[in-house]
Design goal:
The protein is about 40% helix and about 15% strand. The protein has two domains: about 170 residues, Luciferase-like domain (TIM Barrel, Alpha-Beta Barrel), CATH 3.20.20; about 100 residues, no CATH class. By secondary structure, the protein is an alpha/beta fold. Helix 1 packs parallel to helix 12, helix 3 crosses helix 5 and helix 6 runs parallel beside helix 7. The chain is built from twelve helices and eleven strands.
Length: about 325
């Protein structure tokens, strides 16, 4: 049974308001939720960056929805701390929490003062971190010396079953790599042929039969023109390439990089439409590729209207 979930964007809204949004999403018929994990917003205009693990504890208590998040376990977080945070959530809310690991962005990870490593080194760190996290969830005492270091770590508060551990990927190369070690895939929306290739290489790399989750950036307004303007106001970073997204260190750098652009530059990069039927059709395409869960990330503002309209007019049209 496919799941249509709600993405809580910590970059766009303060955590108390996001808690209200996720409650409303459950009431409207969304079946799950996920959230971002940022120390800084992408741009100063976005203006927020709540702490994901603290928020998740409150959100899981406030709703009955399953939830997850993505984080980098080898930057500002040590993998043992990630393992402990995830184990605590999974123990309090059995079967309702999943975790995805990614290689991160300098925007969030540079705050430790360490040098920002190249992608290959970051991948190696994440791969080692995944092994450390799994060993800790298994109740082992872990010592490790490699790209990351752990000495005599053991978790004493464990869930009966460990959370699902996904790997995050936005490119074909990374998706194939993730297929070999992760329990499943978390990726982001793209044009259908591009998304299909990501799915294919994930399965080829070892992901055949594993769950796949999709975060889809969408925008809605009854006016098509207003919908595109709002998307540009809230999510101009969709126009940037992967190198910029990974390597810029400050919100100001992101703002400067998109300065002078406009809604026209978002065409083909975000799912923006004034037609609820079109939104339902996009989700159906995702499901046809084999995604088990699609998390809708509203980048068009008016979050309460978005939840209401999608609950009434989009979700009912998304039956698999």
């Amino acid at each position: 049974m496919a799941i249509i979930g709600f993405h809580a964007s910590h970059e766009l809204y303060p955590p108390d308001l996001l808690l209200r949004h996720v409650r409303l999403a459950e009431q409207a018929g969304f079946q799950a939720a996920m959230c971002s994990d940022h120390f800084h917003p992408w741009t100063p205009q976005q203006g927020q960056a709540g702490f994901s693990f603290a928020w998740l504890g409150a959100a899981l208590q406030a709703t009955s929805l399953p939830m997850g998040t993505i984080c980098c376990p080898a930057g500002r977080y040590h993998p043992a701390i990630v393992a402990q945070a995830a184990a605590t959530l999974a123990a309090m809310f059995p079967g309702r929490f999943w975790l995805a690991l990614g290689t991160g962005q300098a925007l969030n990870e540079h705050i430790t003062g360490d040098l920002w490593p190249p992608k290959a080194e970051r991948r190696a760190r994440v791969r080692e971190a995944a092994d450390v996290i799994r060993a800790l969830w298994a109740g082992e005492t872990v010592s490790h010396r490699g790209e990351i270091r752990v000495k005599g770590a053991r978790l004493y508060s464990l869930p009966q079953r460990p959370p699902l551990l996904l790997g995050a990927a936005t490119t074909e190369e990374t998706a194939e790599w993730v297929g070999g070690w992760a329990d499943g895939l978390l990726t982001v929306s793209a044009e259908l042929p591009t998304l299909g290739k990501v799915v294919d290489v994930f399965r080829k790399g070892g992901g055949e039969g594993k769950p796949m989750f999709l975060q889809a950036a969408v925008g809605y307004d009854p006016s098509e023109e207003r919908a595109w303007r709002a998307a540009w106001e809230h999510w101009p970073i969709a126009t940037l390439d992967q190198d910029q997204i990974q390597d810029f260190e400050t919100p100001a750098q992101f703002a400067a990089a998109v300065d002078g652009g406009g809604p026209r530059d978002l065409k083909g990069k975000l799912r923006i439409s004034s037609d609820p039927g079109q939104h339902a059709a996009w989700i159906q395409e995702d499901l046809s590729l084999g995604f088990e869960a699609v998390y809708l990330h509203n980048v068009g503002g008016e979050p309460e209207r978005f939840i209401e309209v999608f609950g009434q007019k989009v979700l009912p049209g998304c039956d698999p």
